[in-house]
Amino acid sequence: MAYIDINKNTNNDTLRPSRELSSSIAQDFRDALRSFRSNPGFTAIVVLTLAMGIGANSSIFTLMDQVLLRYLPVREPDRLFQLSPWDPVTWIISCTVLLTVAIVSGYLPAARASRVNPIVALHWE
Question: 18: which residues sit within 8 A by CB, 6+ positions away?
Fold first, then answer.
């Protein structure tokens, strides 16, 4: 693993990446290119997946920009309101939902495991 060296200048202390870090990144890049050259099918799938993800991301952002971020043509904009993540009711509801999901996701595997007979489980191992 490459670390960052702290090189002291006469003026101030600065953080500069070490030569080992830059050579490690260059080696990783060369290995990735070699892997892509040896597997053209995999390379095509990777490029298509990235292209579709970037395209979907930009189209969703454009849609949200037009719908949510631009000013809406309303007569009385002062009557509009917005919920923020720091709204106490929204925060309590979010925490309650996340806590419920965490409890259920921990309880279900434990409930299934408690139904297993340990003697039978050890016998089959």
Answer: 2, 3, 4, 5
**Residues 56-81 as b or e (16 or more Cβ within 10 Å = b):** eeeeeeeeeeeeeeeeeeeeeeeeee
d(CA 66, CA 62): 6
Q: Which two tokens stand for residue 106?
A: 């921990």
pTM of the model: 0.37
Contact 24, 31 (CB under 8 A): no
Reported as a single tens digit per residue, the pLDDT across 1-41 is: 454 545 545 454 455 556 676 778 888 889 988 988 998 89
